[in-house]
Structures
1.
Amino acid sequence: MLAALYYLLMLLLGFAWYKFGQNLIQKESRGESDQSTKGLVGPVGLLVTSALAIYLSFALVRSLVQGEVSCIGKGCKVHVYTLATNAGDYWANMFYIAWMVFCLNYAVYVTVKIWYRQ
């Protein structure tokens, strides 16, 4: 039951992130006080976010191919979950990594879309 609640909250947070980005995209390029609409991240943040998204994408693909993923969190950095022995923990960490990849890539998409609107 706790796992279902965790996945539901993650999906709701992802939906809220999506709606927030869509609201930013649909805003006018200039606000009421004649200031331009800003993206989710700035130029340096875009580079950092892109680098982190690429790293996590590589980690996601590597984990899928190898069938093992390192534990994500402060207390378990040394532990490795394998698909054969810890399937539930493996897929929970894979879901979290995939969720992070989606959110970071969406932040980059929204920022670039705002910067290059006409």
2.
Amino acid sequence: MNYFRTLALLIAPFFLVLSCSSTTKVASQFNTPEASGQTFNLESLTRTAERTFADDLVFYVSNDETHLYVLVDFLSSRRYQHAREFGFTLYVDGSNSVRRSFGVTYPTGIYYQLGNYPGAQQGYLDEPNWSNFPENRSIKEAAERSSRQHALLVQRTSRRDPMQPFPFPVAQLNAQSLMLHLDDDERTGRISFAIPLQTRSTSQFSPDIKPGETIAVGFEIDPVRLLDMDIRSTAPLITSETASGRTRTDTDQEEHERINRLRMRMGDPYEQWVQVTLATPSE
């Protein structure tokens, strides 16, 4: 039995419940928000754009001729903790695009960055106090820093294209006009996204949308997607009945208990979609 696949099947019903809810419709405003502070920050959107609720978060959206601007505020400290651990993804799909055609995961999540350290991902999930061990504390701190310094990007033109994201330093994305910023006090967070509308020589990463178009914007925290990826440090499961003298029944029971622990550890998957009509200069 594939332990990760079984976990995905157990959690899948949560996605069905979330995806059946009615789609919220939002009208973007045509303006360029002021970037406050010494670093990119879209705080001014809270004063100029409409506030829209999406379950455990609120968001603000505007656009100009070159960018889509989205500011996300987390209302639930537990939900934000899951975002810090497993990453937060913003999807932007044009009217003629496949679902999840363009996505930015930021922060990437502590769990993803722990893949750079052999055995750390599995230990982080299996042992609740893993981060408190002195030998692991510095590893987690380094993973947290890297989670804010990097983003994951998905660009697809067909359903057959893989969902495997590519990592990029935030500084490299900034140079391509895709701006990201995280305000974090470890309990609540605010994430700023400035996404180029069109692919240009100075903006290679974009959903290729335009003012006036109605698009789909998705917000997602999906630990199952990370587990289903080709994780770099996952140890193989014991499958032989004779390994360590265990019987098949013992192994199945332990696997079932482990899956239940992981579900509690990771929390429920989160997925919300809204329909956004981009503003035009004449509006």
